[in-house]
Amino acid sequence: MSYYCDKYPIIEKKSISRDTFSITIYAPEAAKAAHAGQFANISAPGFTLRRPISICEFSRSRGTLRFVFEVRGKGTEAISRLNVGDNLDVLGPLGNGFAIPDSARRAVLVGGGIGVPPMLGLAKKLGDRATAILGFRDYSRIILADEPTGNLDSTNGNEVMSLLKELNRDGATVVMVTHSEENAREAERIIRMMDGYILTESKNIRVVDA
Ligand SMILES: Cc1cc2nc3c(=O)[nH]c(=O)nc-3n(C[C@H](O)[C@H](O)[C@H](O)COP(=O)(O)OP(=O)(O)OC[C@H]3O[C@@H](n4cnc5c(N)ncnc54)[C@H](O)[C@@H]3O)c2cc1C
Q: 34, 82, 123, 210: most buried, per Cβ within 10 A?
C-alpha cells in the first residue's frame, strides 16, 4: 500500500448542507493510489494532530481527491475556513478500503449522515449493481442525495420514488434534482434549469382518483 504526505492545492470547495463542506484537491499520486473506503489524515491549520477524513471520491484521470466533512470541533472548523487556492496538508490514502467480492451481483449500501460520503466511491464503482439507502438526522442535513434514481434500474428506481412519495405524504418537503421527465412529473412544482439559470417554472396539476 503506498501513501503520500504533501500539501495539495484546493481546486473546489462547496458548502453542501448545514456545517458540511466538500473540498476537492489536486493530488495525482494520491488519487492513483486511492481505493473506495480509504481515508486520509488531514492537518488542521494551527493544530498538531491530524484529523481523519474519509475519501469521498477520487478520480485517477483528473488526479483529484474529494473530502466531505462536518464541522464537529475546532480542527474541522479550521479546515472549513480553507478556500480554493489554499493548500491542504494530506497524509494518505490510508486504511484498507472496501473489499467487494467480484462475484457479488448486487450490493445494498446503507449509511447515515456523515457516514454517507465514504460510500460514494463504492457506489460509483458498482454502478447499477448498488442500491443506496441513506438516512439523515433532519432535512437540512441531507447530502449527496440528488439524482435519486440516476444509477438504478427501473425496479429499484420505482422503490426509491415510492419512499420519497411516502415521506412527502408524511409532511416532508422533497426537493429533487433530476434529468428524468418521469420523476419530474411526480412533483407539485417544477423548475427547469440550464447552465445555472431558471428557464421555466410551473405548477404540476395532477389528476387524483376520488
Ligand atoms: C477513519 C475515519 C474517517 C472519518 N471520516 C470522516 C468523514 O469523511 N467526514 C467527517 O465529517 N468526519 C469523519 N471522521 C470524523 C472526524 O475525524 C472527526 O469529526 C474530527 O476528527 C473531529 O475533529 P475536530 O477537531 O473538529 O473535533 P474535536 O472534537 O475538537 O477534536 C478533538 C480531538 O479528538 C480527535 N477526534 C475527534 N473525533 C474523532 C474521531 N471520530 N476519530 C478519531 N479522532 C477524533 C481529533 O483528532 C482531535 O485530536 C472520520 C473519523 C475516522 C476515524
A: 34
Q: Which residues line ligand 1 (CB under 6 A)?
A: 39, 49, 51-54, 68-70, 72-76, 114, 117-118
Please report the atom of ligand 1 found closest to the CA of residue 75: 25
Measured on CA atoms in the order 177, 180, 183, 187, is the torsion positive or negative? positive
Distance of CA 107 to the CA centre of its chain: 18
pTM: 0.74
- pLDDT, one tens digit per residue, over 121-161 is 888 888 878 777 787 877 677 777 655 555 566 776 777 78
Q: Whose CA is nearest to atom 25 of ligand 1?
A: 75
* Closest approach atom of ligand 1 to CA 52: 17
* CB 22 within 8 Å of CB 12: yes
Which residues have CB under 8 Å from 100's CB, separation 6+? 107, 122, 125, 126
